[in-house]
Specification:
zinc-finger; zinc; 5-stranded mixed β-sheet; about 475 residues
């Protein structure tokens, strides 16, 4: 059976209400006749419900990476609170008596095994479904609309630049708000987000706009790059409708393309048998996208690559989507999908097993830290040259020492004696530098530190913001 932990069960839940209600069932001692199969692959029992008969619930771990939770209750929520509560009862120390596997479970297992065998046979015989034929006419109409949208975006920006930023008033901002909504008709969510962010920067009010001019110029640069690269991509696709999406850069995502996992696999953007450990997690409100974003930073224990998981919760649907959370175990993933990107690729997976972090894992994480800052800075600068790249790349750095600069700032140093100044790199983001003062000095020497970089355009300085501190015995998160 998968190593059951409360964190893993939380990840299986469809929403926070299900977690709360499931825990409530355990506290009320609603579960009766708790059983466990002799081979440890099945938990099953009964739970008192509102009716005269108990609900039959089970957790089947015959395939550890794809557990199946079942229940006889009428709930449309999968998994329901009764099946989740059964797992919480197990991790909470309730007594599960050994018992034979019920016949109905054996029957369902047999059917699932047969389906899997048929799938393997089809793959072995190279029997594939006929590829979906591209509707060339519809595709050309969409591309034409996208090109028209990019032209509109270019006209908006050109008009703004010719008029001058100093002429921006409430009337102009109202017009731009309408133009942001208008861009929604052109299948260009990335362009719409970019213009909305520009509008938000310009609408900061008296006394703040002048201070935001640097950010405004940066946003204009992003829009210019999006228009230029977007046109090139769309025109090439217009000439060759069956052209495959660009899997080397993020331009497809900017143009609104949603990558199916099957296409990522076809592009070779998968890895097998990967173990990931989450180093940091945060949720934030992205007003430009009009979505809440749940982002986790994970390290590949074998390669040392820092990946990101991203969950987007649109404002209008946020209450129906469970907020992601911190994860404190090691995720063992049979097949990991990587999205096109830069230093910190977005990743996804369909199934996983878990285990607890071991001392060897902490040692593996610290061993992957970049020990020469000059090399790390070179990689970061190369990424920041691309206007459409992530402006806050994350890296794991080895910290030989922590010292205070002449102007009172903290700085981390490498073995070569090079120092990087610590500062809160993400504008309007959570502050973390000040939290280092709560750690004993010995926990900030000869350790690994997960940081995000930020480039201060007004001063030309590159700063780093600490997210987590990792030693060979512990992981201390400044954000979780």
């Amino acid at each position: 059976m998968n190593e059951l932990t409360e964190s893993y069960i939380n990840a299986l839940a469809p929403n926070d209400a299900a977690v709360k209600n499931a825990r409530g069932l355990v506290k009320k001692r609603s579960f009766v006749h708790l059983h466990k199969s002799e081979d440890g692959t099945l938990l099953f029992g009964e739970c008192k419900g509102s009716g005269s008969s108990n609900y039959l619930c089970s957790g089947d771990f015959i395939s550890p990476d794809k557990p199946v939770l079942r229940c006889s209750c009428p709930s449309r929520q999968l998994p329901c609170k009764h099946a989740l509560g059964l797992l919480y009862a197990y991790t909470g120390g309730e007594t599960f008596e050994a018992a034979p596997i019920p016949e109905d479970i054996l029957s369902k297992r047999a059917k699932a095994e047969k389906r899997e065998e048929q799938k393997v046979q089809r793959e072995a015989q190279d029997i594939e479904t006929k590829p979906k034929k591209v509707n060339t006419s519809a595709l050309k109409k969409k591309i034409a609309a996208q090109l028209e949208g990019l032209d509109l975006l270019q006209k908006i920006v050109d008009s703004l630049v010719r008029s001058g930023l100093g002429t921006i008033d409430k009337k102009m901002l109202k017009v731009m708000d309408g133009q942001v909504k208008q861009l929604g008709n052109y299948y260009l969510p990335g362009a719409q987000t970019a213009l909305r962010r520009l509008t938000q920067l310009l609408g900061q009010g008296d006394g703040k706009l002048e201070a935001a001019y640097t950010d405004v110029v940066e946003q204009l640069t992003i829009i210019h790059a999006l228009v230029k690269k977007g046109r090139a991509n769309l025109n090439a696709r217009l000439e060759t409708p069956d052209m495959k999406p660009d899997h080397e850069t993020t331009i497809e995502e900017w143009l609104g393309y949603a990558w199916p996992l099957s296409e990522l696999k076809a592009c070779g953007l998968t890895s097998e048998d990967v173990e990931l450990a989450q180093l940091s997690f945060l949720s934030y409100d992205d007003k430009g996208r009009q979505e809440f974003v749940d982002m986790g930073y994970w390290i590949d224990l074998a390669s040392g690559n820092i990946h990101r998981t991203l969950q987007y919760r649109p404002y209008k649907a946020a209450k129906h989507i469970r907020e992601d959370d911190s994860f404190f175990e090691v995720a063992a993933i049979q097949e990991l999908y990587r999205y096109p990107g830069d230093l910190n690729r977005r990743v996804r997976w369909e199934a996983m097993t878990t285990r607890t972090l071991q001392p060897a894992d902490y040692a593996a994480i610290t061993a992957k830290a970049q020990r020469i800052y000059a090399e790390a800075v070179k990689l970061v600068k190369n990424q920041l040259k691309n206007p459409l790249a992530d402006k806050h790349p994350a890296m794991l750095l080895h910290v030989s020492e922590l010292k205070q600069t002449v102007d009172g700032k903290l700085a981390i140093g490498d073995e070569a004696g090079q120092f990087l100044v610590l500062d809160d790199a993400v504008v309007d983001g959570p502050a973390t530098v000040e939290l280092l003062s709560f750690l004993p000095p010995e926990q900030l020497k000869d350790v690994a530190m997960l940081v995000v970089f930020g480039h201060r355009l007004d001063s030309g300085r590159l700063v780093v913001q600490p997210l987590s501190v990792i030693s060979e015995t512990r992981l201390t998160r400044l954000l979780y």
